From TrEMBL:
Biological classification of the source: Bacteria, Pseudomonadati, Bacteroidota, Flavobacteriia, Flavobacteriales
Name this protein carries in UniProt: Glyoxylate/hydroxypyruvate reductase B
InterPro entries membership: D-isomer_2-hydroxyacid_DH, D-isomer_2_OHA_DH_cat_dom, D-isomer_DH_CS1, D-isomer_DH_NAD-bd, NAD(P)-bd_dom_sf
UniProt xrefs under CDD domains: GDH
Superkingdom of origin organism: Bacteria
Protein species of origin: Chryseobacterium contaminans
């Protein structure tokens, strides 16, 4: 069975696949354009797929009829048409859990960075534009006892909430597709409507799976309802927030600040006006970028492919 891997991943995953006797194909150049990528996919059985530049949609599946399975090197699968994959009986593996700690760490870091204006102040140091002590300059806000609103209380949202509770004794409110009573008890969290989440959060952190209905969910009408001291954090997908509306909310004082690990598109252009704002911290989609998480993702992706090659069900599967 041939496995096409479009970018290098940690050795642990490669070794597992080789030990299982699978034939691995790497591209000559990792930055493939769509047509080159399609050619590789047309001559393989399984894809170990890194990144979401190209969509797995009807067009793709029609162009690559030999594809039998796809193992994503991500927990998110918003770039896959799952319905289309289901119709063709193509399992789509993903990598849940192993990156929850790392990704929630980044949400936690962004929250603090924005609350204390860390990136703005770091820039001051780089520009030699600071004095030792300025009583009224660059004042941040403390997070103790504030209200954290989680949009999407899955594994990553849970870990973010737990950290905020332990570190800052924050009150947790959340909005989800479903109530999760066990999680509610563990976090002493309160389920609220989307409107209440938006109005009552001091920090609103997005952790849901991205679906087309979520596109631009956080837009002008939402930012206008938020508290002017609120911090908006997005480590999920850039499509959740409407960028121009976010920019306006930040410059018009509708919200205090924003921390983003995801943008739309990615990469964000260096001349994006958001990057000029003192109340914004943007990171380049590094939620899962730790040695531990990336090793875990490589292991899970390899486990998925090996199971599939033996005719078994993928243990971590996004198909519903
Ligand atoms: C994920 O695993 O979904 C990360 O965001 C990387 O795409």
């Amino acid at each position: 069975m041939k496995v096409f891997i479009n970018k290098r991943i940690p050795e642990i995953g490669i070794n597992m696949l080789q030990e299982a006797g699978l034939q691995i194909i790497f591209p000559e150049n990792e930055n493939l354009i769509y047509e080159e990528w399609l050619k590789y996919c047309q001559h393989t059985d399984v894809i170990l797929s890194i990144g979401s530049d190209f969509k797995y949609d009807k067009l793709f599946f029609e162009a690559c009829p030999n594809i039998k399975a796809i193992a994503l090197y991500s927990v998110g699968f918003d770039h896959v048409d799952i319905k289309e994959a289901n119709q063709r009986h193509i399992p789509i593996g993903n990598t849940p859990d192993v990156l929850s700690r790392a990704t929630s760490d980044i949400a936690f870091l962004l929250m603090q960075s924005v609350a204390r204006r860390a990136s703005y102040n770091f820039q001051k140091v780089k520009d030699e534009a600071w004095d030792t002590f300025e009583p009224l300059h660059a004042l941040g806000q403390e997070l103790y006892g504030k209200t954290l609103g989680i949009f999407g209380l899955g594994r990553i949202g849970f870990q973010m909430a737990e950290k905020c509770k332990r570190a800052f004794e924050m009150e947790i409110i959340y909005h989800n597709r479903h109530h999760n009573e066990e999680t509610e008890r563990e976090l002493e969290a309160t389920y609220v409507s989307f409107d209440e989440l938006v109005r009552n959060s001091d920090v609103l952190s997005v952790h849901a799976n991205f679906t087309p209905e979520h596109k631009d969910l956080f837009n002008q009408s939402v930012f206008e309802k938020m508290n002017p001291n609120a911090i908006f954090i997005n480590t999920a997908r850039g499509g959740f927030h409407q960028e121009k509306d976010l920019y306006n909310a930040l410059t018009e004082g509708k919200i205090w600040g924003a921390g983003l690990d995801v943008t739309n598109p990615e990469p964000m252009s260096a001349d994006n006006p958001l990057l000029k704002l003192p109340n914004v911290c943007v990171l380049p989609h590094i939620g899962s970028a730790t040695i531990e998480a990336r090793n875990g993702m490589a292991r899970l992706a390899a486990e998925n492919i090996i199971a599939f090659s033996k005719g078994e069900k993928m243990p971590y599967c996004a198909n519903t």
